[in-house]
Write a structure and sequence with these properties.
- One of its GO terms (molecular function) is transferase activity.
- Pfam families: GST_N.
- Belongs to the GST superfamily.
- With 205 residues, the protein is an alpha+beta fold.
- The protein folds into two domains: 2-75, 3-Layer(aba) Sandwich (Glutaredoxin); 86-199, Up-down Bundle (Glutathione S-transferase Yfyf (Class Pi), Chain A, domain 2), CATH 1.20.1050.10.
- The protein is 58% helix and 7% strand.
- The protein has eight helices and four strands; from the N terminus they run βαβαββαααααα.
- The protein has helices at residues 10-21, 41-46, 65-75, 86-117, 123-144, 158-174, 181-191, 194-200; strands at 2-4, 27-29, 54-57, 60-63.
- Helix 1 (10-21) links the parallel strand 1 (2-4) and strand 2.
- Helix 1 (10-21) runs parallel beside helix 3.
- The relative contact order is 0.14.
Length: 205
């Protein structure tokens, strides 16, 4: 099994953190960004989007980082990382989808404005998307978190990994000011995880 994608890609970092939580390891090869190779016919046959990461397991190629995480949880013995039954799996999956459909669109805009455009950024666009993300984190995430622990209980799951990488990107770009205390505590708890320290907190948002 091999993961194709550069180590500083947010979605690659997400998968690598999940691998750590699953207590296993995976080979990785640099693709995308300065390494290229993601626009070759061979790669596009595996992943028609030409993006990273792609997971190759024998004759099977899987793209979309959240789907890769679900697959890894299915083929790796684990203690409920993606739930123990249909109900708990659905509760975890809904947070993975929330990260992808609710947080990610605004975070992509924010990242592009702050990191890629820098001094040429549109401050109104930054403010509008910051306000929306703050509302999602403080009104949806904060109110859904238990008093202690993680999204669905005392153990980190795939949902926490997916939400956690996005939350960390936001904090890295704008700091934690304005976030609810429970969200800040949640971020700190995730930051204590070995996989987070190794693959997510690498000095880049």
């Amino acid at each position: 099994m091999k993961l194709l994608g550069r180590a500083d890609s947010l979605n690659v970092r997400k998968v690598l953190w999940a691998v750590s939580e699953l207590g296993t390891s995976i080979d990785r090869e640099d693709y995308g960004g300065p390494f290229g190779k993601n626009d070759t016919p061979e790669y596009l046959k595996m992943n028609p989007n030409g993006l990273v990461p792609t997971l190759v397991d024998g004759e099977t190629a899987i793209w979309e980082s959240n789907t890769i995480i679900r697959y890894l949880a299915a083929v790796t013995p684990n203690d409920g990382f993606f739930g123990r039954d249909a109900a708990s799996a659905a509760q975890i999956s809904q947070w993975m989808d929330w990260q992808l459909t609710s947080l990610n669109p605004h975070m992509q805009v924010l990242f592009a404005q702050i990191v890629k455009l820098g001094d040429k950024r549109n401050e109104k666009v930054v403010q509008d998307n910051t306000t929306t993300i703050n509302k999602l984190l403080n009104e949806v995430l904060a109110k859904s978190l238990p008093d202690q622990g993680f999204l669905t209980g005392s153990k980190v799951t795939a949902g926490d990994v997916c939400v956690g990488v996005m939350l960390h990107r936001y904090v890295s770009l704008l700091g934690a000011s304005g976030l609810a205390d429970r969200v800040i505590a949640y971020h700190r708890a995730l930051a204590d995880r070995l996989g987070f320290k190794t693959y997510v907190a690498i000095g880049k948002p």
